[in-house]
């Protein structure tokens, strides 16, 4: 069943209220005209033989009219039979007492509401002819107004009703358009949310499971090469790969639980997580590179979880690049707490590269790290700066503002 939005329901209720208001007005007008016609007849023709018939037919006409709303406005057999009886009683009344002719105006509305367009217009024309005939019977002589006024009144009544119906139909159409637009907007938002979540998950997997699997592959390949010549070193590589697999397993379980980094879930905040990351990377790489961690300042308030998670993932991704590509002997993580922002520097003394020439590897297995870092920081309104040159090492700086604001622009050293 289609659900309407509050605004659509409000518009629908407004249209229903207009229709009900017009119906109540016509009902009141009918009984007022019927009472006025009966009073006029009784005052002008007291004690006539037809008086009991006029009173009885008036009561019957009123009773029939009261039944109408119960039958509804659809052209069902019962409603058509009721409308025929109502018009027939009114016609008999007009023949007996022409003053009842003006009750035709509410009957116009009734016929237009129930009958199809052509049938309703034929009924209006028939009722108008009876009104003209009745007015001519009451007149002392020929009066053109009596011939022209009833058709004019019928035309105005019909035009008002048709206009009201078209307005109601237009309103229903606008409500339908609004509902369709709302559904399309909701579908678009769901698609955008799905794409954003997929991008986030791809970055999470790249910075954890993919990097860990890559390290395991390198260690196992090294163990395979030294298995016969240096079994002790091979076993050490295997133990290191086992440790990485344990961390990957913890990360995978954390993905299932709440997608939070396992180091942060262990407590201690970002500072402790970075120290643990530095120690683990040093142990896994067997001292090449040696990773140190330094924290400057202290946060004035608790960092948002998404900021801590993003910076930790950036540190993991940057250190994975250092281990795999930089051929560095030392690396350093420096976290600086400032009044208005938090800054993470990842520096190494490796062979470096030319940032301006770095375009990644589209379509390849590698090359996702830096774009993932930029995407994470862009979501937080932060910026990424890369300072490097061939033979001079690399410094990757991630800065995140601690106040709400628009995303920071990329610096010249941050190639796209």
Short description:
The chain has 416 residues and is α+β, with helices and mostly antiparallel strands. Helices cover 66% and strands 9% of the residues. Strands 1-2-3-5-4 form a 5-stranded mixed sheet, covered by helices on one side.
SSE order and pairing:
Blueprint: H1 6-44, H2 51-71, H3 77-96, H4 104-114, H5 117-138, H6 144-226, H7 231-257, H8 262-265, H9 269-284, E1 290-296, H10 305-326, E2 330-337, E3 341-348, H11 369-379, E4 383-388, E5 394-401
Protein name: Oxygen sensor histidine kinase NreB
Domain Histidine kinase: 311-404
Subcellular location: Cytoplasm
Give your account of this protein's structure.
By secondary structure, the protein is α+β, with helices and mostly antiparallel strands. It folds into 2 domains: 179 residues, no CATH class; 148 residues, Heat Shock Protein 90 (2-Layer Sandwich), CATH 3.30.565.10. It contains 11 helices and 5 strands; from the N terminus they run H-H-H-H-H-H-H-H-H-E-H-E-E-H-E-E. Strands 1-2-3-5-4 form a 5-stranded mixed beta sheet, covered by helices on one side. It is rod-shaped and about 130 Å long. The relative contact order is 0.06. The N terminus and C terminus are likely disordered. Keywords: 4Fe-4S, Cytoplasm, Iron, Iron-sulfur, Kinase, Membrane, Metal-binding, Transferase, Transmembrane, Transmembrane helix, Two-component regulatory system. It comes from Streptomyces laculatispora.
